[in-house]
Amino acid sequence: MRIILTHHAKYTINKRKILDDEVINTIRFPEKVYKKKGKYFAQKDIGRGKIEVIYEKENYIKVVTVYWL
Hints:
2 helices, five-stranded mixed β-sheet
């Protein structure tokens, strides 16, 4: 499935020094996922710490934001 990063997600990824590949791997191979109000929350320990990726799923995956836990 195609993964699209919103402008806000690109900004937060850059600001928080997270790599695009780390975000994609968190979506594809999460340690934990839950759904709340139509959005998915995927969590994964990426070695440098744990991140959470918030995304919407339609015909594609739209990443809304990413942050450290």
